[in-house]
Amino acid sequence: MAKYVLSVDQSTQGTKALIFDAAGKMLSRADLPHRQIVNAAGWVSHDPEEIYQNTLKVVRMAAEKAGADPSHIVCMGLSNQRETTVAWDKVSGKPVCDAIVWQCARAADVCARVEKAGIGDLVRDHTGIPISPYFPAAKMAWILQNVPEAKNLAEKNQLGMGTIDAWLVWKLTGQYRTDYSNASRTQLFNLHTLAWDADICAAFGIHPDGLPAVTDSDAVFGKTDLDGWLPGKIPVCGVLGDSHAALFGHGCVDAGMTKATYGTGSSIMMNIGPDFIASKNGLVTSLAWKHKDRISYVMEGNLNYTGAVITWLKDSLGLIASAGETEAMARQAHPADTTCLVPAFSGLGAPYWKSDARALLCDMGRTTGKNEIVRAALDSIAFQIYDVITAMERDTGIHLPVLRVDGGPTRNGYLMQFQSDLLNTPVNCPKAEELSAIGAARMAGVSYGLYPDAAHCALQYTTYTPRMRDEERREKLKRWQTAVGRL
C-alpha cells in the first residue's frame, strides 16, 4: 500500500499543503492566501479561523492534485510563521480577537514598561533574545490588557494563548501543545531550564500554567482526522517554526551547519549543538528543536530588507519589470563602478540593530546607471548575510564550511556566486523549493518511522564556489563597511 506524508506550511501570506511519498518525493502542492488585516494605526492582524479553514481546504486540494487516497496518508507535519500570536476560548473554540502578526508593533508600550522594571538583562540571559514587541510575550500581555474577554477567560483557566502552531494543533487534535522551537521564540521560555520562566511570565502579567505544554518537535502532538475528511485519525508528529523547519529540511543537524533563507527579509540560522551560547555580536540564540530526545540550539540573525530590495527596484523605482531581469542587468553593470546601497528602509537589522537608520545609496560615479544600481541592490543582500555569518563565526568559533540557501532570490545565479565569493565559502542552492514544508515532512516521517533519518531523501544542490581574488573581496567589503558606518 502506498504511504503518504502530509505537510502543512502556515506562513505569513498564506497556507500550503504538500503531499510526499514514502521515498520523500513531493507529489503535489496547494496553497491559499489569507487576508492581511491592517488598520489605520498600522496594526497587522490575521483571522485565526480563516487560517484554520484554509488549512482544511489546502489539504484536500493537495491530495486531489496528487491523486492520493486519503486513507493512505499516515502522518502529518506542520511548520508555521513564527511569533504571530493567537488567543482563544478553549471551550467554545473561538478566537477572542484577531491574531497579532509578528510584524505588528502595537505592544511597544508593554515592552517599555517591562524594560523600565530593569529586567532587560535577565530576559536576554534567560531567553536568548532582547525585549521587543516582535515577540509573543508582549503580544500576549497586550491581549490580556486590552481584550476584556481574554482577561475573563484567563481568570477561569479557559484561555488558550500561543503561536500559530499551538492554535492549529489545538483545532486539529484538541491538545494544547507547542514545540520547543516555537516556545523558544515567545520570550517566555527559559533556554537553560527548558521550561516557561515564572519570573519573566510575571513581568508580562502571564501565568505560566495557562501556556501550552512544550512538546518534543518529533513527538505525537495529538491525532486528527482533519475535520472528518480522513477515514481515521493520523498523528501530528512533526512541528517546527518555519525557519527551524527549513534548517531541518536542509539536513543541518550537526553543529556548524548553517542555512540562509532569502525571502522578503532573511533568516540566517546556524546549528550550534547541544550547548547554549550567548551572542556578543548582535545575534539571538534560540532552540532549533528537540529531536530524538536531544536539544539543539541555534544562533540566528534576521534581516529586514533582502528580497524586498528587489521589490523596491520594481515597484518604487521602476528599474525592472520583474525579478528575473536582475541577473542579466547585474552582469552587464560596469565592472569598475563603485555604487553601494545600504537598504536600511526600516532600519538596519542584525548584527547592527540601528532602528533609526535610513537607506543610503552612495559612491556613484559617471558610469552609474540602471544596471549599476540593480547590481548594488543585489550585492546589498549578500553583504548583509556576510555580516551576520561573520558575527556567528565570532560568537561560536566555528568556521562556516558551506552555506545552504533557500528562497526565491536563490534562483539568481549572479547573487549566489557573489555570496560565495564574499564568504569565500561554497554555497549550496537546492533544486527543490518549500524547505519549511520539506523540513516538517521529514520531521514527521522520521518520527512515524517511514523515513530512517533526517538525511533520508537528501536534496540535490547546485553548488557555487568562490572565484573572487582576495584583494578584490577585501576592497568590496571595505567599501560596504564604510557605507554602513555612515548611517
Number of helix segments? 15
Average pLDDT score: 93
CATH H level of the largest domain: which superfamily?
ATPase, nucleotide binding domain
Report the CATH C-level class of the largest domain: Alpha Beta
Estimated helix fraction: 25-40%
User: What composes the largest sheet?
Assistant: 7 strands, mixed
SSE layout and pairing:
Layout: E1 4-10, E2 14-20, E3 26-33, E4 37-38, E5 44-46, H1 48-66, E6 73-80, E7 85-89, E8 99-100, H2 108-116, H3 120-127, H4 136-146, H5 148-155, E9 159-163, H6 164-173, E10 177-179, H7 180-183, E11 189-190, E12 195-196, H8 198-203, E13 213-215, E14 222-224, E15 234-241, H9 242-249, E16 258-262, E17 266-273, E18 284-291, E19 294-303, H10 307-316, H11 326-332, E20 340-342, E21 360-362, H12 370-396, E22 403-406, H13 413-423, E23 427-430, H14 435-448, E24 461-464, H15 470-485
Parallel strand pairs: 1-6, 6-15, 10-13, 16-22, 22-23
Antiparallel strand pairs: 1-2, 2-3, 4-5, 5-8, 7-9, 11-12, 14-15, 16-17, 17-19, 18-19, 20-21, 23-24
Helix pairs in contact: 4-5, 9-14, 10-12, 11-12, 12-13
List keywords for this structure.
6-stranded mixed β-sheet; alpha+beta; single chain; 24 strands; Nucleotidyltransferase, domain 5; 7-stranded mixed β-sheet; 487 residues; globular
Description:
- This protein is an alpha+beta fold.
- The protein folds into two domains: 4-240, Nucleotidyltransferase, domain 5, CATH 3.30.420.40; 251-487, ATPase, nucleotide binding domain (Nucleotidyltransferase, domain 5).
- Helix content is 34%, strand content 24%.
- It has helices spanning 48-66, 108-116, 120-127, 136-146, 148-155, 164-173, 180-183, 198-203, 242-249, 307-316, 326-332, 370-396, 413-423, 435-448, 470-485; strands at 4-10, 14-20, 26-33, 37-38, 44-46, 73-80, 85-89, 99-100, 159-163, 177-179, 189-190, 195-196, 213-215, 222-224, 234-241, 258-262, 266-273, 284-291, 294-303, 340-342, 360-362, 403-406, 427-430, 461-464.
- The strands form seven sheets. The chain has a seven-stranded mixed sheet with strand order 18-19-17-16-22-23-24. The chain has a six-stranded mixed sheet with strand order 3-2-1-6-15-14, sandwiched between helices. It has a three-stranded antiparallel sheet with strand order 4-5-8.
- Strand 2 and strand 3 (26-33) form a beta hairpin.
- The protein is globular, with a radius of gyration of 22 Å.
- The termini are far apart.
- The mean pLDDT is 93.
